Amino acid sequence: MQTSWAYAQLKKPYLPGDILLSRETAETGKCCHIGLKALCAEYRDVCQGAPFRLFGGPDLAVEIERSHWSIVLLGSFNPSIFHPAWFAQNEVISKEHAGTSEVDVIHNEVASVTLGNQIRVTCEAKRFQVEASKAPEILLLDLVSKVFGDLLPHSRVQSFGINKSVHFRASSPEKRTEIGRMFAPTDPWGEFGKRIQSSEGEQVGGLMSLRMREIKNDEDTTGSLEARIEPSPLLDRRSGVFVAVNRHFDIRDYKEGSGAIQAIRKLDQEFAQALRDSDEIIDSIASIST
Predict the structure, then answer these.
(1) CA 57 to CA 129: how far, in whole Å?
(2) Which pLDDT value is given to residue 123?
(3) Taking Cα atoms as reference points, which of 234, 237, 230 lies closest to residue 285?
(4) Which residue ranges of the chain lie beneath pLDDT 70?
(5) How far is 88 from 206, CA to CA, in rounded Å?
(6) What is the pTM of this model?
(7) Among 12, 76, 150, 232, which is disulfide-ready with 167 (CB 3.0 to 4.6 Å)?
């Protein structure tokens, strides 16, 4: 992404898998990096030599095997314009990235493209989403800010969400079952719960999905912070853990014709904090998974 804030600040190529940088991280030297098997030495000066760790703390490290980030805007959009050539023409991506982009569908009602084999864009008449499974996640904010802050500020955007999800393994199948029992005790379920508690074998019953929500309102928006924990569908079926966090915002007193400016300004202000909130929740769960 030629206009990427992260690239501009580092002034060197990003190595996928080595570092996950946030705007605050680069500016303050504070580290909130996750899922690192190793740290590329040339980046240590960026964070002033601060220690890097996996989730769960240095003594309880849990490797994050898969991560996913997305930004979702709700409002009114024109899917048919979101072709890789349009992004390149408006200098959101380079011509080289446009040449390696993939188009699944572009239609009046829906568009789905992958830009430079890195960021997936999906747009419907009332929903616009960008997502990535490789860091740096700041590229998502760069793209949305460029598109709706600079190029399409007239677009109606009344709500948005910042999402992060991870997959990791508990230290053992028994540990994952223990975590499930902690979040969803079997006692209140009567005989049904007793049968789950006493189940044995390779697969035992228990927690399938749990969601928790915090209400978060301020003078500009109403919203929530929601977390979900489930068995991972992508890792080992006995020990894999999936955690997803959503920070949702609704613009207060949105006025027709005010476009996307309020939402994009708020998104830029809240993006780093939303990811810190996500990491705090994920870290808490990961710390009991070893």
Answers:
(1) 32
(2) 98
(3) 230
(4) 1-61
(5) 49
(6) 0.80
(7) 232
